[in-house]
Specification:
This protein has 504 residues and is an alpha/beta fold. The protein has 2 domains: 282 residues, Zn peptidases (Aminopeptidase), CATH 3.40.630.10; 173 residues. The protein has 14 helices and 20 strands. It is elongated and about 95 Å long.
Length: 504
Amino acid sequence: MKSTINLFLLFIISVSAFAQNNLEVEISTKRLVRDVYFLASDSLGGRKFPHKGSQIAAEYIASEFEAINLKPIPNNPKAYFQEMPVTKLDKGETRIFANKIPPVAGFYYSFAATKPISDSLTQPIKYWGKSTPPHHNLGDTIVHIYGKTMDDAMAHLEEIASKTDAKSFAISLPTKRNKRFIRRELTASRYSYPNSMLIRSSSEWLYHHLPKTDDTLRVFMFNKELTGDFFEKSIKSLNKASAKVGKENRSTSFPISQVTYKTDFFIKTDTLFDKNVIGYIEGTDLKDEVIIIGGHYDHLGRMPDGYCLGADDNASGTAGVMELARMCAQAQSNGFEFRRSIVFMAFCAEESGLNGSMYYANNPVFPLDKTVMIINMDMIGRPDNRPNKPGYAYTTPIGFGKVKRPTKRLLRKVDRQMSNTEFYLKQDFPENIMWLMGSDHFPFHRKGIPALIVTTGTHADYHKSTDTPDKINFRNMANVLKAMFVLITDIATEADKYPLREKE
């Protein structure tokens, strides 16, 4: 399953880079199959951090870089790993037991306490709404209050706590605000990355709104369905009823029910480390200028329908990065001289918000003002073939500067020469918008670095457990990598044709 590429015979292209010698390199579809099947195997569990499969994938990529003698990150004790600190937040579980509503935290309720607490009990709950209890004996009662905003509710809560012995509270806000706050606890990540593209809302959890106190307060937030289940009335009816009895000063007539719950609530943080995998081939007279060849190796892990193995997304792109590294290493060992350095990167944490590439863009190993271009390969294995049609790939240049025109010109030449794979220079809406911002080239693009996104696009198995290795078109993958090798070689040797961006 190996084929030797004689670049003069395969591509009759006037690329002066090849004038050094009759360059021959080998591309192995056998290696591509091995790499994709390993990265997308059940044992790696979808490669989501911090699952051990993510670590195994990173070590596998690093071992392949080492095997072909890529240089590790300069002056880095972790060799090929650029470690990125990740703050892990653990929050204890609280379960409510109700007759009609499934006890699912994050959908129907949230819970927080001012101190760690472990308890299992049943408490009466009384709906006071906007009223203030006139007596002190509330120690065993959950005081259910209402506020137009979280600030209003918390101010009311503090007033009641200061005037009574109440320690347990429930809060209701207008429906949309309730849903937003409760849902936030479910969707906010347990893992916080530095400089994340996604703004997480952990700072606005219910826990972070609680008053600072030495006492142990217990606070629920219920959505309208769960409140209605407890009291068998709508929040609107409850507010009217509580206002009426409040005016009449009949505290015993406030709507009352009971809540059974079990909690082991705590907040604990720890620091873990995710990692980008980086190796490079050092250039000759222009070694300080670099080309980045990247693709993310992480995926989604376990989903409701099973493990998302991510064969196309993005074991395919990661395998492509490794194979291009092998091809370039072969070329160098055969006497070919790359004037510029070529940096190969397998990014972590793309699926959680482009976090690995964002971290690199903010903590570059090689100066960004010396970075000529990033070629980002994301999902290059599924040109779900049309009957009797060749495979394809989208090779979309993104950004600005003088490198765009020669890049497009060379890709057009490659497209004309290769009969069994077509290379398109743009995608249709809305995928063109998705690929502009939706992968690891984007943090570089934001820094003004020209980018080329290489992909065969999405498909019916995108982000599903059905994205499996048996559906990868390895022949088309090999053709995509042949074309990228030609482009990389040209960029690495023809500095005048692909100049560095001008400093602003």
